[in-house]
Specification:
It is built from three helices and seven strands; from the N terminus they run E-H-E-E-E-H-E-H-E-E. The chain has helices spanning 11-28, 94-108, 123-131; strands at residues 2-5, 46-53, 56-65, 77-85, 113-119, 135-136, 149-155.
């Protein structure tokens, strides 16, 4: 298994993004409406990762700098986007590995808090984030007024 950074518009990223959008449609009836641009995931303001197994892209996730106070973000925030594992590769710890890599990268880029938004129809995501130290926070971002939305955060700064 190899996790490597790619551009958000890399062909493998585009393929996985289409699959995650299908997953959102299946679960919620619509895709994610958050406007994303490849430049948002360009270092040092973000990164986009894909996990490969023998050249096959199986999982993805990215973070982007997000500090818009009008949208409920705070200075130092890094926002997780597009965490996804193809169905046949689930249960192998890929999401947890990508999440750890994203946190390490955001910390190295000077970010102090990782934030994310997910939904109630993604119980496996809620469980992953809770078991990884994320806690519910005041809603932020595009879906902050949606009842099914859940926002979570984790400090990237060690206490002490």
């Amino acid at each position: 298994m190899e996790i490597r950074p790619v551009r958000y518009d890399h062909p493998d990223a585009v393929t996985l993004d289409a699959l995650v959008q299908q997953e959102y449609v299946r679960r919620y009836g619509d895709g994610d409406m958050t406007p994303l641009d490849p430049a948002m995931f360009a270092p040092p303001n973000g990164t986009y990762l894909i996990a490969y197994d023998e050249g096959r892209p199986l999982a993805t996730g990215g973070w982007r700098l997000q500090e818009d106070a009008n949208e409920g973000y705070a200075t130092g925030d890094a926002e997780i986007k597009r965490m996804f594992v193809v169905p046949e590769a689930r249960g192998r710890g890929l999401a947890r590995r990508i999440l750890a890599a994203l946190e390490a990268d955001a910390r190295a880029a000077g970010r102090s808090r990782m934030v994310l938004e997910t939904g109630i129809k993604q119980p496996e995501a809620l469980e992953l984030y809770a078991s990884s130290g994320y806690a519910p926070v005041k809603k932020f971002g595009l879906y902050r007024t949606y009842e099914a939305s859940r926002c979570m955060a984790k400090s990237l700064v060690s206490a002490g």
